[in-house]
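#lab-general

N.A. 3:47 PM
ok so I finally got the sequence cleaned up, no stray characters, all 115 residues accounted for. can someone with queue access submit it? mine expired

B.Y. 3:52 PM
send it over

N.A. 3:53 PM
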Amino acid sequence: AQLVESGGALVQPGGSLRLSCAASRFTFSTSVMSWYRQAPVKERELVAVISSAGGGTYYADSVKGRFTISRDNAKNTVYLQMNSLKPEDTAVYYCNALYYGSQYWGQGTQVTVSS
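B.Y. 4:20 PM
back already:
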């Protein structure tokens, strides 16, 4: 399995970004997809989850109402729309796939929220 994230950038507080994760080499449409993030000197934390068909989602309390996870199974891609960004959202964001009990990770994309 291969996961490639993109879309990370430096953005001002209150701004927006959309992260993308392109998947290949496994059956994307049957996988639960998630976004995690890891800030410096902090543990990796779960940000959002989306079910295989896209009908179910979960968000961490810290991003609820600001972030939206979505997927396009025809394009083998999962997205994370991030609005109203705060400095505490600064982290490396990782895409994760849960496929028949095995987990796969992307290399991460840096999001920095700063004025």
